[in-house]
Design a protein that fits this description.
mainly alpha, Serine Threonine Protein Phosphatase 5, Tetratricopeptide repeat, 26 helices, 71% helix, transmembrane helix, Tetratricopeptide repeat protein 38, transmembrane
Length: 473
């Protein structure tokens, strides 16, 4: 929704007739209000910048002609520093990156407080107040409460794309797969072709479907979205996941290759899509990871090295390179998912002091977790998983199995996707195969049978079965 021509005309009218000024806010709002989404600001420039930020967020792509997301977020502050939704979208996006936390970053904590203060001192809509409540909850680590607020918005305003996308990402961080799917399903009837960015809902919908094992439907929905918007990198990403979960290696490689020119322009998601194509594009992942500093790129690089190492590939030098990126985040503790990947980095680089510091920091936070959901989960999930990785690194395979096996069905709660969390399933299988315990070895065989049933014809599963046969006959 860009209304530049009309709003510029109206600005001329304002110069001629100053008494029209009082109508400007309602004029801006009438356009957003067409979808029941008024914005409480008197700045038409702020409205346009809000739209530009939201569009780049949904597309996973910086628009360099506008200065990218960072440039637009700076500009929206200059256009109207008291614009509540301008502060919501800028602060919310920084929180969503999980690159930093309000616990350690006082500037970000201050930005959240300022947003709340602005909301409390202005006559804004109930929808806008819910947005503020949501990012405040998210900033405290209370992801479920944040999602509840966004869902409350969507109940009355199903075309509020910011609420939908924030909820989608929040569900992803908590492994709330069904919620991620159903959140999109509920609003679909309200989205019509004339609504900007409507085709991008296909990618969101498809991802929720595949994470709840509706692979055929997920592929169909994603391809429908790509027929409308070929460069929708999230829809491409959904198809990549479907091929991964079905072990359709050749199909996945061909799909990613033939569409690379479309999805690689999505600079915020390109590295992750290369990760799905990782065995052929290892260099792409690392080059982009170091350049972007993106948390998604960082955890992908950690996961890739960890998987290659379990496959017997020597990646020692790569760990040292990656440690430069992960080590500064040792004390963040924003999500358990991130922590586990940072631990991969310190273990791989043999930085035992960093590994211990990460574990002890997490243990300390469990003593008084407050409303932070991730810290609440740490005692029963995050810490055992960290300890299991440390034990595996030290060759204590029995203890690794004893720690991981009882919680394997709870691992979904660390967030991420099935494809990303599979690294921990692989870790359990490797530990069971290497364990001296006959019972664990038998468990390893059972886990491989189970894996083969879930992903028939997977080359990885076949390699694991062959390795198990070589070890134990």
């Amino acid at each position: 929704m860009c209304f530049g021509v009309i709003l510029c005309f109206f600005a001329v009218v304002l110069c001629i007739f100053p008494f029209f000024y009082v109508l400007l806010e309602s004029f801006c709002n009438c356009f957003w209000g067409a979808e029941g989404l008024p914005l409480s600001t008197t700045s038409n420039e702020a409205c346009k910048l809000y739209d530009a930020i939201l569009t780049q967020y949904v597309k996973w792509r910086n628009d360099d002609t506008l200065g990218g997301l960072e440039g637009c977020m700076s500009a929206i502050q200059a256009a109207d520093p008291n614009f509540v939704m301008g502060n919501v979208i800028s602060t919310g996006l920084e929180l969503m990156t999980t690159t930093t936390s309000t616990r350690l970053n006082q500037r970000l904590a201050s930005a959240v407080r300022r947003t709340v203060e602005l909301a409390n001192t202005q006559d804004i809509s109930p929808r806008e107040k819910l947005h503020v409540r949501a990012i405040e909850c998210f900033s405290h680590g209370n992801f479920p409460k944040a999602s509840e607020a966004w869902e409350e918005i969507l109940l009355d305003h199903p075309t509020d794309l910011l609420a939908l996308k924030f909820a989608h990402d929040s569900y992803f961080y908590t492994g709330a797969q069904a919620e991620m799917r159903d959140s999109v399903v509920r609003v679909l009837p309200h989205w019509k072709p004339h609504i900007p960015l409507h085709s991008y809902l296909n990618g969101l919908h498809a991802f929720g479907l595949l994470e709840t094992r509706f692979y055929d439907q997920a592929e169909k929905v994603a391809m429908e979205g790509l027929a409308m918007t070929p460069d929708d990198a999230w829809a491409v990403h959904a198809v990549a996941h479907v091929c991964e979960m079905r072990a359709e290696v050749d199909k996945g490689l061909k799909f990613m290759e033939t569409r690379e020119k479309d999805w690689q322009v999505s600079d915020a998601l390109a590295s992750h899509n290369y990760w799905h194509w990782a065995l052929y594009y290892v260099e792409q992942v690392f080059r982009r990871c170091k350049a972007s500093g993106s948390m998604l790129d960082t955890v992908d690089a950690c996961s890739l090295l960890y998987r290659l190492e379990m496959e017997g590939v020597c990646v020692k030098d790569r760990w040292q390179e990656l440690l430069q990126v992960t080590q500064p985040h040792t004390d963040d503790h924003v999500t358990l998912f991130n922590d586990l990947h940072f631990l991969m980095g310190s273990l791989g680089a043999n930085e035992s002091a960093t590994s211990q510091r990460l574990l002890e920091g997490l243990q300390e936070l469990t003593k008084e977790p407050g409303e932070n959901q991730q810290h609440q989960l740490a005692a029963t999930l995050g810490i055992p998983m960290c300890q299991a990785m440390i034990e595996y690194n030290q060759g204590n395979y029995n203890q690794t199995v004893n720690l991981l096996y009882p919680i394997r069905y709870k691992m979904v709660n660390i967030g991420g996707s099935d494809a990303q969390r599979d690294v921990f399933n692989q870790l359990l299988i490797h530990a069971a195969m290497k364990s001296e315990s006959k019972r664990h070895q038998k468990l390893g065989r059972c886990l491989l049978v189970e894996r083969d049933a879930m992903k028939p014809n997977s080359p990885l599963t076949r390699r694991l079965m062959e390795r198990n046969l070589a070890l134990h006959g």
